[in-house]
Specification:
Blueprint: E1 3-6, H1 12-16, H2 23-33, E2 38-39, E3 41-42, H3 51-63, E4 70-72, H4 82-103, E5 108-111, H5 122-143, E6 146-150, H6 167-175, E7 183-187, H7 189-194, H8 199-206, E8 210-215, E9 218-220, H9 226-231, E10 242-244, H10 254-263, E11 269-272, H11 279-297
Parallel strand pairs: 1-2, 1-11, 3-4, 4-5, 5-6, 6-7, 7-8, 8-11
Antiparallel strand pairs: 9-10
Length: 299
C-alpha cells in the first residue's frame, strides 16, 4: 500500500543548519497539523548519532503516531582523494545503520553520487560511485535497509551540483548495479526538471526500480514562459525562472506519474518534499496526494 510521509523543506535550515528548531519541535508540529503515516528524516537534523539519542528521536516519532520511512544523507563518492572517498563509504554505511535503528527493516536510506568536479572525468566518476555503493550494499542487505539513489540536484551544504545530475549519468550508474532488492531509485520528478530532463521519460526508464518518491513541484514564475525557461542559460540548477510550490500546481504531470507507478505495482512511500513557504502548503499538497492515492490505488 502506498503511504504518505513529509519532509520539512520549510524548516530544513532552521533544524539542520541554524539550530533555531529541534527535530523534536518538528515532530510535535507534525503531530498537531499533518495527517500522514511517516516523517522523513535528514541526518543533519540530529545533534548526535549516539544510540540513546537516536532512540529518543525514533520513540518521539512513533509516539506521535508516525513511522520513519526514509533517512536522507549525502555521501560524496567522487572526491579525487581515495581517503576522502573511503570516509564517504564509511559515512554512508553508518547512515544505513542509523536508518535501521530509526525505521527497521525496509526503511529507505538515500544515497547520492557526489559532487561534479572538473578534474574528475565522467568515466572515473561513474567507476568510483558504483564501487562505493557496492561496498555499502552488504551492510544494507544484512540490516534489511534499502539504498535509494536519488536523481538529485545538489545537497544544500555542497558547493557543486550532483555528479549524476543528468539523466544519462544517473541511468549509467543505476544500470551498473545488479542488486535489485536492497538498492533502487529514490525518484524526484522536480529534480529532473531542474536538470533539464523530462521527468516522465526518466520515470519510464527506472519505473521497475523505484523504491520511493519525493513529491515536489516546480512552477514558472509569474510572467515567465516555458520557452524562456528552456532557452535560458540556467536550465541546469535552481533557475531564476522556477519556484517551489504546492504539489500538483506545477510542471509535473502527477496523473501520469501515479499512473506509471501503479501500473508497475509500486507500493512504497511517497514523501512530500515541498512546502517551502510553510505548513499550509504542505497541507494543501497532502490533500492533492491523497486524491492521487485514492484515484490510482483506491486508498
Amino acid at each position: 500500500m502506498v503511504k504518505l510521509s513529509v519532509y520539512p523543506k520549510c524548516f530544513e535550515y532552521d533544524i539542520g543548519l541554524h539550530r533555531r528548531m529541534t527535530v523534536f519541535d518538528w515532530i510535535r508540529m507534525a503531530r498537531d497539523r499533518l495527517d500522514v503515516e511517516g516523517l522523513e528524516m535528514y541526518d543533519r537534523f540530529f545533534t548526535s548519532l549516539e544510540h540513546d539519542y537516536l532512540v529518543q528521536v525514533r520513540d518521539a516519532v512513533n509516539d506521535a503516531g508516525f513511522t520513519i520511512p526514509m533517512l536522507i544523507c549525502s555521501p560524496d563518492f567522487t572526491h579525487p582523494d581515495p581517503e576522502e572517498r573511503g570516509r564517504a563509504v564509511e559515512y554512508q554505511t553508518k547512515m544505513v545503520e542509523v536508518a535501521s535503528l530509526l525505521g527497521g527493516k525496509g526503511v529507505i536510506c538515500r544515497t547520492l553520487s557526489g559532487q561534479q568536479r572538473p578534474e574528475v572525468s565522467h568515466e572515473q566518476g561513474v567507476k568510483w560511485v558504483v564501487e562505493a555503493i557496492q561496498q555499502v550494499i552488504p551492510t544494507a542487505r544484512k540490516l534489511g535497509v534499502v539504498l535509494g539513489m536519488e536523481n538529485h540536484y545538489k545537497d544544500s551544504q555542497w558547493t557543486r551540483p550532483e555528479f549524476a545530475l543528468r539523466a544519462d549519468t544517473f541511468l549509467e550508474i543505476i544500470s551498473s548495479i545488479d542488486e535489485h532488492r536492497f538498492f533502487g531509485v529514490q525518484f524526484d520528478p522536480s529534480n529532473a526538471i531542474v536538470a533539464g530532463d523530462d521527468p516522465i521519460a526518466l520515470l519510464e526508464k527506472v519505473k521497475a526500480r523505484v523504491v520511493s518518491m519525493h513529491a515536489s513541484d516546480r512552477r514558472l514564475k509569474e510572467g515567465v514562459t516555458m520557452e524562456q525557461f528552456r532557452k535560458s542559460d540556467q536550465i541546469i540548477g535552481y533557475s531564476q525562472y522556477l519556484s517551489h510550490g504546492v504539489v500538483g500546481k506545477g510542471l509535473n504531470d502527477y496523473d501520469r506519474i501515479f499512473s506509471i507507478l501503479s501500473e508497475v505495482g509500486f507500493n512504497g512511500w511517497v514523501s512530500i518534499e515541498d512546502g517551502v513557504n510553510g505548513l499550509d502548503e504542505i497541507e494543501e499538497s497532502l490533500v492533492f496526494l491523497n486524491h492521487m492515492r485514492q484515484k490510482y490505488y483506491g486508498i
